[in-house]
Every structure is written in C-alpha cells, then in structure tokens.
C-alpha cells in the first residue's frame, strides 16, 4: 500500500513538472495576455479638500503628487517624560492624514491619530462606525504623562462619508472632547 502511494505521488509530481516545462517562461519575451488597465486617476477636488479641512479644524495641508497631507499638531497636550522632561509638540505629537483618490472617484485616507490613552477608545469607535479599518494601536513614547498612543488606520468612501467619519473621530480629541454638545430637541 505504501509503495502504491509513493508511486502515485511521484507520478503527480512529475506530471506537474512536465506541465510547467511545457509553458513558456514569463521572461521569454512574449507579451503576456492583455490585462485591464486601472482606470485613470481622478484628481483631488480642491473644494472637497477645503470642506474636509474646515470640518476637522485643520490648517490647509500640502499636496505632493497624488496625495494631500493634513497635519494636526497636538498643541493642547503638555507631555512630560521622566528622562527627557517636557516633550515639545514638534517632536512628532501630531495627527497626520494622507488623502488620495482612485479612478472610480472614491477617496482613500491613510492616517495616524495621536491620542491620549483616555481618548483612544472613543476615536477607535468613531473610525470603526464609519467602516474605517484600524491597522494598529501602539504607544508613541515610554514613561510619559499623559500616555500617548498612535492609532494607524485606513478608510475609504465618498468625500462626505470620509469627512463625517473623521469629524466624529476628532470630536473625541483634545478641547473638542470637553465642549458642550448642543441639546437635540
């Protein structure tokens, strides 16, 4: 029984090698079968970017190539570390958003929220409610007060959806967190 199983396996392996040898290698200089090309890249709409920037309270960002980047420094934080003392905002305490567009017109966002530990769950909940995916949550520093976390995420959708989701996430950060919400009637 064992010899029969070994012989069958050997025949299958040899047959698969023969079929591979019969196929020409990809580098043989022959063109590959036609593959559909990606649709042409849609340009970022300045009106959309302005609306997004205003909704989240950011300063105008910078566009390089196909990507628009918004950086929101966490100037509301006084971060202190046992070894380094006070850590300035310019040392990387900022939320960064990279916005770009695909050929179908959909907007994509790849970002990194800089949050305190007590803000993190609410920001994650807001992003996930908008169907954004969380890539990682990790500390930014060691032994700092307050604890600072990085929430890396990615999301997609029409600009209205992206704006709404990010606006809700920013509602839970910094001074926005302590603002009174209007009473809904």
Silhouette:
globular
Helix content: 25-40%
- Total number of helices: 5
Major sheet, described briefly?
6 strands, antiparallel
The topology string of helices and strands comes to HHEEEEEEHEEEHH
Strand content: 25-35%
Strand order, biggest sheet? 1-2-5-6-9-7
Number of strands: 9
Tell me the number of structural domains.
1
Q: Regions with pLDDT < 50 over 5+ consecutive residues?
A: none
Class of secondary structure makeup: alpha+beta
What is the CA-atom radius of gyration, in angstroms?
Answer: 25 Å
End-to-end distance: 80 Å
Mean pLDDT: 83
Note down, in words, how this protein is organized:
The chain is of the alpha+beta class. The chain has one domain. It has 5 helices and 9 strands; from the N terminus they run H-H-E-E-E-E-E-E-H-E-E-E-H-H. The chain has a 6-stranded antiparallel β-sheet with strand order 1-2-5-6-9-7. A 3-stranded antiparallel β-sheet has the order 4-3-8, with no helix packed on it. A hairpin with a 3-residue loop joins strand 3 and strand 4. The chain is globular and about 50 Å long.
Short description:
Helix content is 33%, strand content 29%. The chain has 185 residues and is an alpha+beta fold.
